[in-house]
Structure formats: C-alpha cells, structure tokens
Amino acid sequence: MNTFNSIYSHGFVRTAVCVPKVNVADITFNTAQILALAKEANNLKVALALFPELGVTAYTLDDLFLQSVILESAKNAISVIVSESKNINTILVIGSPLKFDDKIFNCALVIYKGKIMGIVPKSYIPNYREFYEKRYFASAYDATFTEVNFLGNNIPFGNKLVFEVDTFNIYKKNLFSFSVEICEDLWVPVSPSSFAALAGATVICNLSASDITIGKADYRRSLSLNQSGKCIAAYMYAATGIGESTTDMAWDGQAMICENNTLLVEGERFSFESQIITTDVHIEKLVQERIRLSSFTDSIRVHQNEVSKFRKINFQFEIPSGEVPMIRKIERFPFVLENHLKRDANCYEAYNIQIHGLIKRLLSSKINHIVIGISGGLDSTQALIVAVKAMDILGLPRKNILAYTMPGFATLEKTKDNSWKLMNALGVSSEEIDIKPSCLLMLKDISHPFSDGKPVYDITFENVQAGERTSHLFRLANKNNALVLGTGDLSEIALGWCTYGVGDQMSHYNVNSSVPKTLIKYLIRWSILSNQFDKQTDEVLTSILESEITPELIPSSKGVVQSTELVVGPYELQDFNIYYITRYGILPSNVAYMCWVAWNNKVNGNWDDGIFEVLRKEYDLVTIKKWLKVFLSKFFGSTQFKRSAMPNGPKVGSGGSLSPRGDWRAPSDSVANVWLDELDKNVPDTI
To answer: Can you give the pTM of this predicted structure?
Structure first.
C-alpha cells in the first residue's frame, strides 16, 4: 500500500535521464557504466530511466558497426543487462546496434525486471554532412517483420509501439504510457512521437548521440520543449557525452526532461563523470490537459490510419513501497511565473490585457468616463491603475475617472487615508461619500436590530453596506454617462466572496475578473519595482500591499480587524486550489499533496524578492485540508450562481477565467459531496 507521501499515489511518475561515461567499442566498460546508473536510478525509486543512443557500443564506431564481433558482443552485453535488471525495479531504455534479417538496426531496447518488453529501431537515418548512418543502419521502415526472436524470446519490434504501464492510478489503468524515438526522429517535420502521443503515450523517450556545435544545445532544447508542448507530453532527451570519439566531432552529453513546453530539469553538459538527472513528471495533469483540448482528439481522428498501426505493449510496474517524497519543485504561486528574467514581459502582458480589454469596452460603448469605488485595498487599487493607463493610451484626461471612497461602519482610517492618497497621486477625480446615513435608512426600513442601536452584525448588516456602495456607483454612472468598473478578483469570484446582484459582484466591466489575489499582489509589487509611477504613488502602493485584507463591514472589536482570510482561508492556499482544480480538474487529494509539498516548509524553494521574510508562511497538512474543504464546499456546492451571472472581463492568464462565456460552465445547483468525500478518504490529518 502506498503512503500519502509518495508521488506514485498522486498521479506523478519519477523519470531519469542517464548519461554514462563511454569508451568506443569497449562494450564491457560501457555495460558496467549503464548498470551502475541503472542501479542508482533504482535507489532513487525511478520508474523510467533513459540512456543515450547506441550506448552499449558507443555511437562513433563508424565501419566497426559492420564487424561481427561488435554485434555479437553487444548482444551478449544486452543479455547481461537483462539478467541484472531482475533486481532493478526501474524500466530501462538503452541503445544498441542489433542485426535482424541481414540488416543492422540502430535500436532502443525497453527492459524491465529481466525481460525485454520491446525493441524500437530508429526511423530516420541521417546521411548528410557529418552523418553517414545509412552506410551501416537500416531504417525501421525497412523492416519486414513486427516481431523478432532475440535471446530466446519473441519480442515486439518496430517504431509503432506504445508501452502501457498499469497501476499508477486506481481511477484509470495505463495512466503512464511511453514511446521511444531515436535522435534524428525528432529533427524531421513529423516525428514518430507525434503519432505515438496520439496513440496514448504521455512520456516520450529520445535516445540521442548528436554531436555538439556552437548553438546546437539551444536548438535541441527548443525541439524538445516544442515537441513536449505539441504532444502534451513529457519529453526525455539523452545525448551521448564524454568518451565518444573526437576524430571529427565533439560531444556534450546534454540531458533534459521537459513537460508540456516546460523544462523541468537539465543536466550538466561536458561532464567528465557519468551523470543522472531526475524529476517527477505530472502524468495526471498531462492526461487532463489532453481531455480538455478538443483539437488533440480531432488530430487522433484525422490521423487514425497512422494511430491505428500502433501496438500497445502492456505490463505491470511494481510501484516502489513506502514513502517516495516529491523531488520536483512545486511553485507556491502557480498563477505567478517565477522566472524573473521574464517578469517584466509577463507583467507587461498582464497589464495590457486588462488595459486593452477596458479600452475596447469604452470605445464600443462610446463612453469616456469611468466610475470606480476605491476602498484602499488591493483589488480597487489594481483596477484604478488599469483605468489610469487606459485613459493615458486613449489620450483622455485622468480626471475622466470618477473615483469614490465610500466609508461605512467599519472603515479603517488607514484604508480611507490610502484611498485618498492613491486617488490624489494618480490625478483622478476624487470624492468621498459617507454611506452610513443611507445604510441606516435601509436598516430601519427593514427593521434590522442595528437601527435600534443593537450590535447585530449579521450578513444582512454586511450586505446592506455592499449594496449601498454598488447602488451609488451605478447611479453615479447614470448621472455622468460613465461605465462602472468592477474590481472583484478571480479568488473572490471562485469563493463566492462577493455580494450578489446589487453588490460588488456586479459592474459594467470587470478588469480583475480573471486575476487572482496572489497575482494582483505581484502586479502591484512589480509596478513599484519597475518605477511605473512616481515615488509618492509607490509609497501608497507599498502601504496597501502591507495592509490586512478585510471587507471592512463589521466594526473592529478590541482592536481586532475583520479578516477575510480567517473566513475563506489564506488566498495563497486558495489560489493554489483554484489553479489545479478549475484549470486541470486534479483530484482533491492530489491537490492537497501538491499544496503540502509546496507550502510545508517556508525555508525550501524560492520566494519572490518582494515578499519579505516576515511575510513568508508555511502550512501543515491539517490546515491545507481544512481550507481545501472550504474551497470545495463553496466552489462546487453554493456559489456557482454568482459566476453564472458575472460581468464581462478579459481572460488574463493561462490559469483561466470563471466566466460562463469563457473557461468555466457549470450548473448552479450541484453538490460538493463527491469532491469532499474523495478528500476525506485519501488525505490523512497528519503525515
């Protein structure tokens, strides 16, 4: 039985790319190096380990491949590796020349637990510039057979094999499937792996030799990344390294593992020692992404003649027992890309998506004024920044932005002060409207106890204030021929943390509707770091970032301010839940595990420079499970009706939006039991 703290319980599989030291034609040495790395992979509890092209003999034998002693020695070496693999619980993919039917093939052998599961020959044989492989090797397409007798066993042979591995997930057998191609196969316009992916392979192995020239490493990386993205797969790439002949070429031993256009890990090039790189591939996410992309299914239908030629080689993998902790880095903030080199470009895009969405709405409605409520919090600040930039681009005065701060019964002096400072610093039209008198009138009209002086702070008391603010904004928009700009963010929308109808749920256009709270913090922080505004504005923005997130609807008691996150949970956790459940449909128990990996120790991993150490948090599994329950209950069980009627707003990030006209369509009357039951069943309270 697998423990909770095992990647194999949560839709992941550990993979390795091995680059052993090699000696040309020294088959005994090469075999020992392969086995040493295979045993190391086994100790690391790796499921699938990839080795370079022709690693048994080395790649640079040239005419020596035509020597019978080389072919016989390679065959004997494979026999040794197969025998030794009986005690290795790792699927090995190794390369060797093999002779069948009076032809020599450049082959990959898939070996597991003392058995060769299949042999895949190279499809495309390069014969240009420094490559002369057709002098020695036949192509997979030259084979007139689909099975060979090798080492006394009949073994599937061909370039149309998909190896399916059982038992990775109780909900779906064969969740882990892989295929194999060899070096040049990746360089051609349509790679064999393209069809293999359509036939079900979620991991693609490429055994490569590939001599190194200036700039070629970047090109290989680009090819591997692009192929992993197009195939919605993991792509493992192993190039041969030090020890190959340098008579006319040199070798760098590039090793990579990519996943859906993301580079997960890359090894050291030009290493004088054997090396192994490992990472955990997220199989469940790849499968879920394929399910969602209708064009992937369309491609299967269009290419069904090729896809139908693939044979499925099914076998059962013995999942490593006990704990197998995650070694892959799980980002704490999945909506926020941590690549600092791309930070400026990403933030530029995010802002301009919001800005140009708003510009189009203003132009199409022939309106050149905006009404917005400013609370002194994160969301209204971000929306005001977007509005200011939109006016600047349109060549309209910032005074066309009619900004109102509307203090109620629980408004803090700090937030009201920040509201005024922000409006003044950005040069917009600003005004203060005290909503308490109109709120008291409504509370009196409905005979609420607060109107008689009783301290009753129920949901009605809160929503009267939220409704009065929204009602004022819409009437002000009528009066000034303006558009009401919404400020509620994706996190609040997912949790239903908004007042429906005549409340902050409604606006004419909402630029924040697909921007989660954690990304809004990041964008505002970037505005400061990149000097988008003057020092005065930056000081206000910094103060806003440091403020408690509060709806300011219930008066503070003994200095304790009403806290949003004490009710709906920490936004950094809820944004994590939102991303993996709404974007990919990952099982709740698997989301809890990933969240625990990301958040259980604040010392581990990287933090954005703008998040001061005092603000860096960690959460135990009990806390993570608690708030995930809250999310599941609210999102699936009670708040969809608010999303079904949400205003227009642009999709900003790949994490998606929750608009019923965009990424999310769901019934308003579903129940959350199935998600909650799965979480309770598969997530312990402690590890």
So the answer is: 0.95
